[in-house]
Amino acid sequence: MAPPGPDPGVAQLARQGNHGRSTSLLAMLLESIQDHVAHAGVFGLVEGVLGVLAFGGLLSSLLGDSAIKAGAIVAVILGILGLFILLAANRAERRQQSQLDRRLLRKYLAVLEDRFDYAWSTTNWHQTVNIKRNGDTFETITLTLVADCDLLDYFSIWLGPGWEWPSRLQRKVKVSVQTVRIGNEGGTRPDISCAWFHHNRIAITVHLGEPVSRGQEVSFSLTLVWPLKCAPLFRGQADEFTLTFSKLPSSTVSLPSLYYAVVLPVNCNVCYDAVGLKRGNDDYTLTGEVNNQGQVEVILTADNVPPNRRVGMRLDLTRK
Questions:
Q1: CB–CB of 212/152 below 8 Å?
Q2: Out of 168, 213, 216, 229, which residue is the most buried by the measure of CB atoms under 10 Å away?
Q3: What are phi and psi of 106, to 5 degrees?
Q4: Would you say 219 and 180 are in contact if contact means Cβ atoms under 8 Å apart?
């Protein structure tokens, strides 16, 4: 009797196993390359490309074969394209994961605030917004807050433009936070986390190095670089610069001191009105003056600003 031939099913499984092994090796190779590129960054990518170029140039110089030169050029081009694709895909994946992590962090911070009456009050707010002609802003904020809970570990600030600002510019918004200097003490940078909501609103959470006990005060200074934040103002549209100091619904604690200044470029005239404040009822002043650089500054000062009320100014720009 002739020996039995190989089982077609076994042969098929064997072929699939070999193919799967090849695919697995290729996937492992691509994964290792992607991991190297992700950890090495742009400089690692440049080093790798320069190494391939140097090796190809050395071979073509030694052997002088046009075929080797052409092959080296093709290999370099394919290698560059492949590495760039891997790097772009890896960055996109990491960016999506980072955005998710930030949104979840902000979500559970809000849950803690509601569940455990985690609260603070702002006692002083000093903000200056410098605007360029293209609508870019450079903002400085100095604030003092007091803990209204047993232990305050963090606080959050929500900021945003008053229009459908393009979300593609989110990565260009730069935020920096420092403790306020008192003599030789201060100026250190606490940890911060930022999360975007509704495309054009950012929640900046400052994580305190040490918790603040009830009734104690802390002061910080923030700087923000925000591209095109006030672009509509220079396109002939009125723009509003407003703030809301939110408190618990039952709270009646007011903001003792508010200073809000908007600095316009040179050779700009502006009309302005108060928002959320009424003469005779609220203690505020709204003035426009020219500084030493020839720039118009619209300055709002107010005392005892009620909680949960939107206050600020409306500006309408004209050119001289």
A1: yes
A2: 229
A3: -65, -35
A4: yes
State the Cα–Cα distance between residues 83 and 37, nearest whole angstrom.
7
Provide φ and ψ at 144, rounded to 5°. -125, 135
Report the length, in residues, of the chain.
Answer: 320
- What is residue 80's predicted lDDT score, i.e. its pLDDT? 66
Burial class (CB in 10 A: 0-12, 13-18, 19+), 96: exposed
Residues 230, 241 contacting (CB under 8 angstroms): no
Structure tokens at 163: 């229009």
pLDDT of residue 3: 40
Check residue 29 and give its pLDDT.
55
Global pTM reads 0.69
- Looking up tokens 């603070």 gives 120
Domain boundaries, the chain: 10-110, 116-319
Q: What's the average pLDDT block by block, 10 residues per block, for the chain (320 residues)?
A: 40 40 56 55 53 56 59 64 65 67 72 73 95 96 92 90 89 94 89 83 90 94 96 93 79 86 93 94 95 94 93 85
